[in-house]
Write a structure and sequence with these properties.
The complex is a heterodimer. Chain A has 1 helix and 9 strands. Chain A has one helix spanning 17-24, and strands at residues 31-33, 39-40, 55-56, 63-72, 86-93, 100-103, 105-106, 118-125, 131-137. In chain A, the strands form 2 sheets. A 6-stranded mixed beta sheet of chain A has the order 6-5-4-8-9-7. By secondary structure, chain B is an alpha+beta fold. The chains are: A mainly beta, B alpha+beta. The complex binds zinc ion.
Chain lengths: 142, 390
């Protein structure tokens, strides 16, 4: 069963659709400023660094490092009682400096999650067809 | 703005556990708090001509003014944002209005109560909250509640600076000690470090006593010009400086987790701190008591750093030294018991406590307190804070 299935609905708009469309193709793409090259996440109509409205969506490797994490023990709402404890991680991606992705690491014990842990993309499709970028721990770099 | 507006009256309803006041009429609750504030100030309802509030308040002057017997409205405003980020911003708006001559007496007000199905802590997890383009980047991954958002910031602080859960315990225990002497506080049972460390985990590293209560109640502050304040019943409490905002790159930092690392390991208040001290012409050493918005113990530590009471990364050591304890610490913090142990009214009680300290009438009085720092809740932009003096 998909983790956190109860929360797995999305409502993209024109600004965020390129991210989610790419996910459906199993491609991780983040928005990058076409003028100064800074990544911005979540996607936005303007670059916070240079003010440019232009952006492109480069394909990323999916490799990254855990920047911070929490282990959620208290189910904030009753339907999540079956999901706790679960991890939430904030990931810095190797090829998208300055941007972070919020996600989960699959198949890892709570005690094994740590800051600095290396992770790799693991696509997760929900029963409703939402494709979420989740991650797996990398034990040995290829 | 410096010293040109004053808080001249404060009042509150009775404080209740979450849901305890749900059947009360919110307008009647605001009236109860207003009447207490008017009595405190020596003013009448006919003197009030302005409204300032925050946090998506539904009660506006169209309902309040007639029901409260306020003859005419000359000013009304609300600070952006949910949660407790706008408390001091609402006071700042009130102060700006009376200084500009738009209104004579502005009431800063807030009443909160919650039905059982909609508690704040559930936040983005509630079934009533629909998916939207921005929450799509955190909600599907189970990042839905304030405790979780802030736990991530604090975890990085622990990693970078060696801050520990025992530092969190010191904030919880110190705050509880203050509440135990406050008859209005809702949590007055003793709390030890051992109990803190043994309590159930909410969002690691935050345990139960690292998270504030959710409670019911309302409060009103009355703001008028310094000239008018001099003729009123109480010693005026001057707004030395007020700030509302933050660094643009903080932005949606709480929910997006994308602020640059130096901001990430903070409460997002450093920008406002600089402005406050510059406006007031003082330094952190001049602050006698700090009322820091304590939705989570860890954010008290990060705010101590943001406001320059120690260097970045030294907040844990600062609290471990006993610095925030009343009465012997060098900077007593949350002498009323804070959101953690007194009551959670989205921060207005921190302003009330500052007023009491500066009048010399606090339960846990800091001797000869002259200057108080009050902060609103660290949150997405804008947050707010202010310096008050007697
Ligand atoms: Zn740019």
């Amino acid at each position: 069963m998909t983790m956190l299935a109860d929360l797995a609905s999305i409502a993209p708009d024109a600004t965020t659709a390129p991210f989610w469309d790419a996910c459906r193709r199993r491609e991780l793409r983040l928005q990058r400023c076409s003028d100064c090259g800074a990544f911005r996440q979540p996607p936005s109509p303007g670059c916070p660094h240079c003010g440019s409205a232009r952006g492109d969506w480069p394909l990323l490797s999916g490799r990254g490092t855990v920047f911070s994490f929490t282990i959620v023990h208290h189910a904030a709402v009753p339907p999540l009682a079956a999901d706790v404890p679960y991890n939430v991680v904030v990931i810095e991606l190797d090829d998208a400096p300055g941007a972070r992705l919020i996600s989960n690491v699959l198949d890892v014990a709570p005690d094994d999650v740590s800051v600095g842990m290396r992770v790799d993309l693991a696509w997760d499709e929900t029963p409703d067809g939402v494709v979420l970028p989740r991650f797996r721990r990398v034990t040995a770099e290829r | 703005m410096k010293d040109r507006a004053c808080i001249v009256g404060v009042g509150a309803t009775r404080y209740g556990k979450r849901g305890e006041l749900f059947d009360e009429n919110p307008v009647a609750q605001i009236r109860e708090a207003l009447d207490a504030a008017l009595d405190d100030a020596g003013l009448t309802r006919r003197d009030v001509d302005g409204f300032a509030t925050y946090s998506v308040e539904k009660l506006d002057p169209s309902v309040l003014a007639p029901a409260l017997g306020i003859p005419a409205v000359n000013y009304s405003s609300m600070v952006h944002g949910g949660g407790g980020g706008g408390t001091c911003g609402a006071v700042a708006n009130a102060a700006a209005a009376v200084i500009a001559g738009q209104a004579d007496v502005v009431m800063v007000y807030k009443f909160i109560t919650q039905p059982p199905h909609a508690r704040f802590g559930a936040a983005y997890g509630s079934a009533q909250v629909a998916a939207d383009p921005l929450s799509d980047f955190h909600r599907p991954f189970g990042l839905i509640s304030p405790a979780q958002f802030f736990s991530l910031l604090f975890r990085r602080h622990m990693h970078r600076y060696g801050t520990t859960p025992l530092h969190l315990a010191e904030v919880a225990v110190s705050t509880r000690r203050n509440a135990m002497r406050n008859p209005k506080a809702l949590k007055r049972e003793p709390l030890t470090v051992e109990q803190h460390q043994a309590a159930r985990m909410i969002a690691d590293p935050f345990r139960l006593f690292d998270c504030c209560q959710e409670t019911d109640g309302g409060a009103v502050l009355l703001v008028t010009s310094a000239e008018r304040a001099r003729d009123l019943k109480q010693k005026p409490v001057y707004v030395m400086a007020a700030a509302m905002g933050g660094d643009s790159l903080w932005g949606q930092g709480l929910t997006s987790q994308n602020q640059p690392e130096d901001l990430y390991v903070s409460a997002g208040h450093a920008h406002m701190a600089k402005r406050l001290y510059a406006q007031a012409g003082i330094t952190p050493d001049d602050v006698d008591v700090a009322l820091l918005y304590d939705h989570f113990t860890g954010m008290v530590i990060l705010q101590l750093e943001d406001y320059g009471f120690c260097k970045r990364g030294e907040g844990g050591d600062l609290v471990a030294s006993g610095a925030i304890r009343w009465p012997d610490g060098r900077l007593p913090v949350n002498t009323h018991g804070g959101n953690l142990s007194e009551v959670y009214l989205l921060g207005l009680t921190h302003a009330i406590e500052a007023v009491r300290q500066l009048r010399g009438e606090a339960v846990n009085q800091v001797p000869d307190a002259e200057i108080a720092l009050v902060t609103a809740g660290p949150s997405n932009l804008p947050s707010s804070s202010m310096l008050l003096r007697r």
